[in-house]
C-alpha cells in the first residue's frame, strides 16, 4: 500500500491548514503539496516543500529589487533564453523537497545524482516493511538483444509465471528470515543493521530528497528519457507533471530544449548542411561511426 489510512489522515490534516505568507506561491504547486502520487506497486512521490516560481528565476536573472517581472511573455522569453544559452544559475534559485518511496535498486540509480540533499529511512534504527516491487506481467521483459542496458520482448506463458513466482517467493522467504533473525523472542535477536543484508533489492525504502531546479532538470533529462530504466522513469515522469504545474514557463523551455531537443556533434551539423545543400550523405561519407549515424538518423528522421 503506497500510503496507509493513518498517513493519509496526516496528509489531509496538513492540507487543511493554511497560513498567510509573504513568500512567492505557485498556485500550480499548491495543489500537489503533501499529496502522494502513486508510482509502481507500493511507491509514491510527494512534494513536502518548495521555494520559488517562474518569477523567482527572472528576478534572479535580473537581480531585481521588486517583482522583477515585466510581462508574462517577457518572462517566458527570458526563461527560454536562459535555458537556450545554458545560463543555469537563475534556475538554482528554485528548490523542491520531495518524499519518495522507491525500491532499493531504483534508489541505487537515483542516489548517483549527487547534487541533491538526501535523508533516507534508517534500517539500522527501524524495521523495514514487508513491501517488495513485483513488476506487472507486461513489464516482465527479456534481455534486449541490441542493447546490453535494455529490455526486449515481454516474457510470456510458463516463463513469465515462473519468474513472478521466484520474485514473490524469494522476497517473502528473505523477509521471513529477516523477521526471524531480529526477533527477541527466545533469543538475543540479531541487530537490525546486520539482518537487513538478507533483504532483496526490490524491497522499498524511503527518503526526503531536496534539489534545486537546475539539478532537478538534469535528473529529469536523464531519467525521464526513453533510455532510462522503466522503474526510475515512472518516478521522473510523475515529477515532470509536478514541475510542469510548479514552474510552467521553465518546464516548457526544458521540455523544448532538453527533452525534445538534441545535441549534435560538429560532424552531424556538417552533414545537415550538406543534406540541405542537396547532397546525398551516407554513413560511409558522413565521417561518423555506425552507432553515431544510427542515432543521428533517429534525430533527422524522427
Ligand atoms: C542511461 C544511464 C545509464 C547509466 N549507466 C551507468 C553504469 O553503467 N554505471 C555507472 O556507474 N553509472 C551509470 N549511470 C549513472 C551516470 O554515470 C551518472 O552517475 C548519473 O546519471 C548522475 O549524473 P551526474 O553525475 O551528471 O549527476 P550529479 O551527480 O547530480 O551531478 C550533476 C553535475 O555536477 C557535476 N559534478 C557533480 N559531482 C561532481 C564531481 N565530484 N566531480 C566533477 N563534477 C561533478 C557534473 O557536471 C555533473 O554532471 C547511468 C546513467 C544513465 C542515465
Automatic annotation (TrEMBL):
InterPro entries: Thymidylate_synthase_ThyX (IPR003669), Thymidylate_synthase_ThyX_sf (IPR036098). This is Flavin-dependent thymidylate synthase. SUPFAM superfamilies: Thymidylate synthase-complementing protein Thy1. It is an enzyme of class 2 (transferase). Pathway: Pyrimidine metabolism; dTTP biosynthesis. Gene3D superfamilies: 3.30.1360.170. Pfam families: Thy1. GO terms for molecular function: flavin adenine dinucleotide binding; NADPH binding; thymidylate synthase (FAD) activity; thymidylate synthase activity. PROSITE patterns: THYX. Keywords: FAD, Flavoprotein, Methyltransferase, NADP, Nucleotide biosynthesis, Transferase. Catalyzes the reductive methylation of 2'-deoxyuridine-5'-monophosphate (dUMP) to 2'-deoxythymidine-5'-monophosphate (dTMP) while utilizing 5,10-methylenetetrahydrofolate (mTHF) as the methyl donor, and NADPH and FADH(2) as the reductant. The active site is at 223 (involved in ionization of n3 of dump, leading to its activation). FAD binds at residues 89, 112-114, 120, 212-214, 218. Transmembrane segments: none annotated. Its cofactor is FAD. Homotetramer. DUMP binds at residues 109-112, 120-124, 196, 223. Belongs to the thymidylate synthase ThyX family. Binds 4 FAD per tetramer. Each FAD binding site is formed by three monomers. It catalyses: dUMP + (6R)-5,10-methylene-5,6,7,8-tetrahydrofolate + NADPH + H(+) = dTMP + (6S)-5,6,7,8-tetrahydrofolate + NADP(+). It comes from the Bacteria. One of its GO terms (biological process) is methylation. Its EC number is 2.1.1.148.
Amino acid at each position: 500500500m503506497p500510503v496507509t489510512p493513518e498517513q493519509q489522515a496526516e496528509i489531509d490534516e496538513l492540507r487543511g491548514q493554511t497560513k498567510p505568507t509573504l513568500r512567492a506561491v505557485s498556485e500550480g504547486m499548491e495543489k500537489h503539496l503533501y499529496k502522494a502520487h502513486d508510482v509502481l506497486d507500493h511507491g509514491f512521490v510527494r512534494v513536502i516543500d518548495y521555494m520559488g516560481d517562474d518569477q523567482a528565476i527572472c528576478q534572479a536573472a535580473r537581480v531585481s529589487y521588486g517583482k522583477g517581472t515585466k510581462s508574462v511573455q517577457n518572462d517566458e522569453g527570458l526563461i527560454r533564453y536562459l535555458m537556450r544559452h545554458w545560463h543555469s544559475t537563475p534556475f538554482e534559485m528554485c528548490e523542491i523537497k520531495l518524499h519518495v518511496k522507491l525500491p532499493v535498486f531504483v534508489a541505487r540509480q537515483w542516489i548517483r545524482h549527487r547534487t541533491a540533499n538526501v535523508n533516507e529511512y534508517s534500517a539500522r534504527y527501524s524495521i523495514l516493511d514487508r513491501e517488495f516491487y513485483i513488476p506487472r506481467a507486461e513489464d516482465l521483459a527479456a534481455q534486449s538483444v541490441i542493447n546490453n542496458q535494455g529490455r526486449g520482448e515481454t516474457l510470456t506463458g510458463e516463463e513469465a509465471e515462473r519468474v513472478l513466482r521466484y520474485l514473490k517467493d524469494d522476497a517473502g522467504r528473505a523477509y521471513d528470515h529477516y523477521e526471524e533473525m531480529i526477533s527477541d523472542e527466545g533469543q538475543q535477536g540479531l541487530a537490525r543493521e546486520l539482518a537487513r543484508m538478507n533483504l532483496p533489492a526490490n524491497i522499498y525504502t524511503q527518503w526526503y530528497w531536496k534539489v534545486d531546479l537546475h539539478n532537478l532538470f538534469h535528473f529529469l533529462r536523464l531519467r525521464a528519457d526513453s533510455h532510462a530504466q522503466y522503474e526510475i522513469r515512472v518516478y521522473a515522469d510523475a515529477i515532470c507533471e509536478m514541475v510542469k504545474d510548479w514552474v510552467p514557463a521553465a518546464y516548457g523551455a526544458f521540455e523544448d530544449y532538453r527533452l525534445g531537443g538534441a545535441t549534435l556533434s560538429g560532424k552531424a551539423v556538417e552533414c545537415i548542411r550538406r543534406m540541405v545543400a542537396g547532397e546525398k550523405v551516407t554513413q560511409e561519407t558522413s565521417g561518423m561511426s555506425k552507432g553515431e549515424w544510427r542515432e543521428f538518423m533517429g534525430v533527422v528522421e524522427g
